[in-house]
Amino acid sequence: MPAQPDRNIACPSASPSTMASETGTIPDPLHWLAHAPASPVHGQAVRLTDTLTGDSNALWKVETGTESLVLKMFLDAGQARGRRQYNAQTLAWRADLAPEPLVFDRYPEGLARQVLVYRWCPGCPLDVRDPAHREALAQSLGQLHRLAPTPDTRLSPHPINAEYQWNLIEGSLRRLERWRLEQPWDELNAALTAAMQEGSRQLPALVTSLEGSTPAAVVHGELYGEHCLMYDGRVRMVDWELAGIGDPARECAHVILHMLRNLPADDCQAWQDRYLSEAGQANLAPRVELYVRLLPLEGLLNLALLLTRRQPTAEADAGRVGPLLRVAFRECMSDVNRALKLDFADEELDQFACQYQRRLQPDMPMVAGGE
């Protein structure tokens, strides 16, 4: 397989007719594909060529003799996720931005979970270090954000505008502030305090100044490099489970912060300018800049809130999860440092991240005096 159609882990041990998952053994999805009346290849012979599995879905790539298909089974919230993906992916396919979805079966005969079938999309993984790939990504994302939602288009689970995003951040600020006041005053506490206070001082006025300037647009909802395929000079996107009506500025900022974060600043700005020219929306640029400041603070607060749990990281997982959370905290703290102009040195950011990881240990007292 040149690239995985969804962000999942290859599962080479799965048999052609069943796959082990967190929900148990899934009975014969290929039988459904070949024999169910709702299947787009009903009555045809199908041959399994690859299997994929993840936390919330399982996929089978099959050949029918004339074409390659992907059968996707939703293992979690399939009614909502499946319908959202089918509706949004259909809209994107019509604009040549996604593989063609063929059918979504809410009640597949003989199967315990909802299934979606779509045509296999050829291509290679997106490489944002390649200027041609960046150009294609900016063009495809701008075209997506120009699409008009249909009556069937659902809301994306993400905040619909910056006001809603800030309301969520304010709730996290209040929860973290109550916990923070009970903690010993150390470097990590001081850093979190600075980020919280500066965010509360700088951002509300910016949010208010742009209130009501968000037009309805279709967003992908989970845009990462592994959900993009480069083929014939275009980027096509897969895994549309979180797609729907949302704020394109938020998605653009997400791409800048996650997919382009290791590129030089000039390359990021050039990509943003190309995207803005393709999307063609009024007031989009200042909203992108606002989300570039909002999203890192949201991520930092979400990570910090893990510390408010009595045992943030189970002992069995501490060695595996702790280093990953330290890296994530370091990245979020670095983005917040830049966005809010906190002026912490790199060495200080490294120290905060190490202190954060130590605080995640189950035996680490979480309140003053070890209460």
What is the total number of structural domains? 3
Q: Strands of the biggest beta sheet: in what spatial order? A: 1-4-5-6-8-7
In total, how many beta strands?
13
Radius of gyration: 22 Å
Mean pLDDT reading: 87
The topology string of helices and strands comes to: EEEHEEEHEEEHHHEEEEHHHHH
Number of helical runs? 10
Share of β-strand residues = 15-25%
Distance between the termini: 53 Å
Principal-axes geometry comes out as globular
Structure in a nutshell:
This protein has helices spanning 29-35, 78-94, 131-146, 162-180, 187-209, 248-259, 265-279, 284-305, 315-339, 346-359; strands at 9-10, 18-21, 24-27, 47-53, 57-63, 68-74, 101-105, 115-119, 124-125, 217-219, 228-231, 234-237, 244-246.
Describe the model.
By secondary structure, the protein is of the alpha+beta class. The chain folds into 3 domains: 9-122, Phosphorylase Kinase, domain 1 (2-Layer Sandwich), CATH 3.30.200; 131-156 and 217-284, Transferase(Phosphotransferase) domain 1 (Transferase(Phosphotransferase), domain 1); 162-213 and 287-370, no CATH class. Helix content is 46%, strand content 15%. The chain is built from 10 helices and 13 strands. It has helices spanning 29-35, 78-94, 131-146, 162-180, 187-209, 248-259, 265-279, 284-305, 315-339, 346-359, and strands at 9-10, 18-21, 24-27, 47-53, 57-63, 68-74, 101-105, 115-119, 124-125, 217-219, 228-231, 234-237, 244-246. The strands form 4 sheets. A 6-stranded antiparallel β-sheet has the order 1-4-5-6-8-7, with helices on both faces. A hairpin with a 4-residue loop joins strand 5 (57-63) and strand 6. Helix 4 (162-180) runs antiparallel to helix 5. Residues 1-26 and 366-371 have low confidence and may be disordered.
